[in-house]
Amino acid sequence: MLEIGATSVNTIKILLRSKIAFVVSTASLSLFLFFNFDLANASPNHLLATNPVSVKSQNNNDFDNDGLTDLEEQKLGTERYLADTDGDGISDGIEVGNNPFRPLNHDNDQRIDALDSDDDNDGLPTVFEQQQDSDNDGIPDYLDTDSDNDGISDGEEAGMTLQDSDHDGIDNLVDVDNTGSEDKNGDGINDQFHFPDRNKNGKPDFLDKDIRYSKVKIPSDNILTQLEKNTNIPKTSNNKISPTKDQDHDGIPDAIEIKIGTNPKQRDSDNDLVPDAIEIGLILEYPQDTDHDGIIDALDDDDDNDGILTRNEDPNRDGSPANDDIDNDGVPNYQDANDDGDMTITRDESSTLDTDKDGVLDYLDKDDGVDRSLARLKKEKS
């Protein structure tokens, strides 16, 4: 029996009765092939001369050009017709690594990176992180649980819920099956989703090292007991403070509300028409403070410090400032220091004048007829 076995992508060894007879150079054979020969009068030279190896294995093909052969993809469970099986923006070849027999699995979750929607298990899908290295630590963002190196995981800063109700691998926060939002490209992710960007510099918080949070820790039992004594909550067994109890049913545990100063029995602690749950934000342990004035939004009557009270930033007059975004920049007016998106911040525009008499107040009118650049230049010269 003559056994031809591939030892690398460039050479194969032909074994005769368990001894190496000769080596043939090739760039195409990747399978072990078996042939039966009458070896009575055969010799290595005879075999080489009369039976040259010129077989090209179809299993060495790479249909999707991802750097993995079709055979390797079959064994790994990846798709040979898709260069990016898990649809996370990183090709299978990169995610598998240099050795297909030991595919990469950075978070050790029993799902190789090429089949994992969150390669570093930080709660933020790989598709949102990609291969850049934001903090220059030598680890690409999609494998770095803290891409901006600020001590807070990407998933926490991005506001991920870490819940997947329909088990499709997409966090409820961005899953169109959960939000009912638009999904033109069919990837299952809300096209209109914007990550938290507290300083409005165009860089999401999970990539912005300049963003600093003041973490609120859930109090221990003995601290809860002391908190009970210092609040006006009736001292009954039903109203006992606990890490999970939520008297106003706003999704924020009483223990957290008392710790940060909001009212555990009132859904809108500052009465600005925006519920605490929205103003605190997606990360309960890091309540939002949009204008960085030391007062969290849930207790601030002017969240963006633009001179317009939050409750009055409701141009459509539906009773909720949370759904008003005049300049369509993804930031609601009550958190937007430049409501109309022109060259002048809201505080420097009039909240009562309508210069061009078009029925829209200047601070909400991108084209209000006022040459702000000229006015500012004159002011600077004076």
Q: Describe the oligomeric state of these chains in a short phrase.
A: single chain
- C-alpha Rg (nearest Å): 31 Å
User: How far is the first residue's CA from the last residue's CA?
Assistant: 99 Å
Q: What portion of the residues fall into strands of 2 or more residues?
A: 5-15%
Shape call:
elongated
- Count helical runs: 9
Described by strand count, sense and barrel closure, the largest sheet is:
4 strands, antiparallel
Structural class: mainly alpha
Strand order of the largest sheet: 3-2-1-4
Which residues form runs of ≥5 with pLDDT under 50?
1-57, 233-238, 372-381
Mean pLDDT: 74
Helicity, in percent? 10-25%
Task: Sketch the topology as an H/E string, one letter per element.
Answer: EEEEHHHHHHHHH
Quick one: how many beta strands?
A: 4
Short characterization:
It is built from 9 helices and 4 strands. It has 382 residues and is mainly α.
Structure characterization notes:
The protein is elongated and about 75 Å long. Strands 3-2-1-4 form a 4-stranded antiparallel β-sheet, with no helix packed on it. The chain contains 9 helices and 4 strands. Among the domains are: 2-60, no CATH class; 214-327, no CATH class; 338-382, no CATH class. Residues 1-57, 233-238 and 372-381 have low confidence and may be disordered. It has helices spanning 44-50, 70-76, 92-96, 154-158, 176-179, 221-229, 254-260, 276-280, 372-381, and strands at residues 2-6, 11-16, 19-25, 33-35. The protein is 15% helix and 5% strand. The protein has 382 residues and is mainly α.
